[in-house]
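Chain A, query sequence.
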Amino acid sequence: MSIRVRLTLWYTLVLSVILAAIGFAIYNVFVAVIGENVDRKLNETAALVFSVSTVSRLGEVRIPVAADVFRSAGLYLQVIDPLGRVVGMSDSLRGYDKPINPAVLSLDLADFRPVRHDVREGDVHLRVLTVPIGSPGQIIGYLQIGVQMDSYDESLSQLTRLLLAGWVAGVLLGGVGGAFLARQALRPIDDVTNTARAISEAGDLSRRIPVPRARDEVGRLATTFNGMLARLEALFKAQQRFTADISHELRTPLTTIRGNLDLIRRMRVADDASLDAAQGEIERMTRLVGDLLLLAQADAGLPIRRAPVALDAVMVEVFEQMRAIAGGVNVGVGAEDAIAVMGDADRLKQLMINLVGNAVRYTPAGGSITLNLKRRDGWAVFSVSDTGPGIPPEHLPHIFERFYRVEKSRSRQEAGVNGASSGAGLGLSIAQWIAQSHGGRIEAQSEVGKGTVFTVYLPELRQ
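Chain A, predicted structure.
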């Protein structure tokens, strides 16, 4: 069952209940008003009788002639003795010698209060008021006054028919109106659905859903959907770029290995140069595949081991390791605070090696690289600064993206450090993931011609 049909049914159901409640209230108010009017007429007639009579003896209770003016409205009066015999009546009851409501005469009227009952004589409906005559404890008779209710009953019947007809008409009109309103309300959602279907069938993620001018729920839905499409488009493009980049990165070492193997096959001699070249490309490809596997595990939620790590000791290890392979680049240590963090020592060492190796790779001979570790407002701040060529401002926001390189065409030297980036554009991505997995972050600042500074913030372990 569609939402449109469910909305129509719910709207019709709620409207029918409301109309039924209103009709019930109107009917009961009308019944109460009629009853109040009839009882007031009975009380006024009883007061008129007692105003012209004495009540010491039944024979002195006179039914005034003026009361017969109510004859056309079906007004009946009787005077009855304690034995139930009729001793006086209005002209409208001539020939009827029984009490209008004999059942009331057997009731206990010791409290000397009037009693009202509805009585039916055949097809006639009467409202009867029985008033004791005499005094409390000494009742000498009863005055019964009846009003014919047939005209009132007919009015109630007509009102019931009108209310029922109005309820049916209201429900039908409500159903039609509800279907129309549901259709109008859901039309923008149909537009969203049709546009989404067209985008899915065409495979064009660059299309967007028109956003209605009204900033209502449908407008927010369209805006959210467009945001999702933009996100999917970016991910799809990133996937295409990733596929192209990884194909390029793997094709280069495979081409080199194949060329050296062909050379060895033609020469039928395994020379050391060819074997070294093939070995180097195999190692580079191995590191690339290892980096890709690590990033894939990171995307899948690879857990990080948690243990206290002396970050200053890790930095010293990285310094000794990178200084040995830095060539003509001067690697030094500036500030070195004793700081501990909670995390994975191997991953943190890999983070530092990636950053320092990246600095070594792009710092020319004679340049310098400085490692610093400081405590700052509850953070362990590790920084790597170099005197390399720097990073242009337009590239700086993208350097942590996978396979992103500032200069893709220039040759890349092999770092030759275990865990360091191979120049494929994955080292900084891995470093960023390691920092974020430890609850920290990486910031990069660079000025073309003066150098680059990478700063890592990690939560300090409080002793």
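The two ends are 62 Å apart (CA to CA). The chain is about 50% helix and 20% strand.
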